[in-house]
Amino acid sequence: MNPLRxxxxxxxxxxxxxxxxxxxxxxxxxxxxxxxxxxxxNRGPLTGxxxxxxxxxxxxxxxxxxxxxxxFLAFLVAPLGYAFWLxxxxxxxxxxxxxxxxxxxxxxxxDHQFLSGxxxxxxxxxxxxxxMLGLALLGALLIDxxxxxxxxxxxxxxxxxxAVPAVIGALMWGFLYSPTFxxxxxxxxxxxxxxxxxxxxSLMLTSLGNIVTWQWTGxxxxxxxxxxQGLPREVYEAAKLDGAGPVQTALRVKVPMISSxxxxxxxxxIIGTLQFFTEPRVLRPIASSVITPDYTPNLYAxxxxxxxxxxxxxxxxxxxxxxxxxVGSYVxxxxxxxxxxxx
Length: 343
Known about the structure:
Layout: H1 3-14, H2 25-87, E1 89-92, E2 96-99, H3 103-108, H4 112-146, H5 149-163, H6 166-177, H7 183-190, H8 204-229, H9 233-241, H10 246-257, H11 259-274, H12 278-283, H13 297-306, H14 311-340
Antiparallel strand pairs: 1-2
Helix pairs in contact: 2-14, 4-5, 4-8, 4-11, 5-8, 11-14, 13-14
């Protein structure tokens, strides 16, 4: 044999054979093992980077909410805590300042002046709230149906009273109501209707209700109109195909679909009514014989603190009113949440 061929054969014999190619299940198992080993080797650095990124995001979130948290604690939580501490104390000339626990609250819930003012506000709300929200709903349905430039003007006109500060609005209406120099009295006398005192005992709640309705109807209308704008237009088209007219579409389609917005506006209106203060406080100088210091619970608490210096009992009256507002709002939401869809 040729020596060259013998050397090549010897070299070939000394090289180990190639491993057989694995196919199917063995190949997939091999790749899975290799990927797991690779992932296991890189798990530490990746996890560290992810944790550091989450930490940075949490730190940035805490940094962004810190100013609000500080202001919230300084201007809401701290004053409420101090007022509650005052409500648990009693200060007298003879006994001095001492801790009396809930004696002021027991006195508040048996105080005829506080309870009569609360009842007066409740009667006022039973008449004024449905009237105001009914007008707001009617206005929202009208401008949603019209949808033209006239609707924009109508919407802006009704919303303008809300832009007027409550104090200025009450002063303006106090001038209109004045029995001596007000234009309402002049027009009434010119028409031969006689003297009409809108600030009398019998008409005072009506006059106050007119001010509140004038100022807040536009705001509630905008809220309800925004809810109407969020409804799908396909529902209206389906109602028209079924033969429903504009009134039927409004009452049977639009109003039920914005029940959540109606409940929210009603709840906020109830809370605002129970805290009634600005309008009677502004009108009191020109109708002091009608608007007494205990005309509303908030006005009663204000006069106790800043006219009679009964800060402890005034704080208790304020928290008692807050408890009444909370209970009333909770009962209303509990009764209406199933039909409105609120959770």
